[in-house]
Amino acid sequence: MKDSLRLWWVATSLTGLAGVAGPAAWAQGHAHVHGQAQLEVVLDGAELQITLSAPLDSLVGFEHAPRTAAQRQTAEAALRSLVDPAQLFSLPPAAGCTLQDKSVDAPTLQAAPGAAKSGEHADLDATWRFGCSAPAQLDRVKLSLFERFAPMKRLTVLVAGPAGQGRYPLRRGAAAEVPLKR
Ligand SMILES: [Zn+2]
Predict the structure, then answer these.
(1) Distance CA 172, CA 178 (A)
(2) Separation of 88 CA from ligand 1 center, angstroms?
(3) pLDDT, tens digit, for every residue of 163-176?
């Protein structure tokens, strides 16, 4: 359901963009690989939507409801970051972007201890939607996800906007900034 909602949004939001062929490829979804995560950045007019999809392990290092005090602390810190995207990425101030809406879908992190069976995998999806008063100034996004989430080793960033689309495979330790314009 989460995926179909997101695909609906991407399909709807990109209909006005000429020459964007990417979303169909994105629609195939992402593999569940520990240490990896995917970020979709879509600029449509004055609206910027950023979506993070990741195995829970890539964010907190486990995929069950928190059991220990340390795991509870890690889970709470992760959830706090996810509802405050300024901790995860920064946008050029000149673009005047303000957060309009957000959703964090992490049932396992919010579940009671023992709620998830051991051996199961779990994912996390989070979406943030911004309205930007000067979207032409939105030339880059600077990412702090590697700093926030220690287990994250690789982050694939998919960008779609008026200037076209791009795919940026980022690794921990390298510059974590993606251009929104060419
Ligand atoms: Zn897993």
Answers:
(1) 14
(2) 22
(3) 889 999 999 998 88
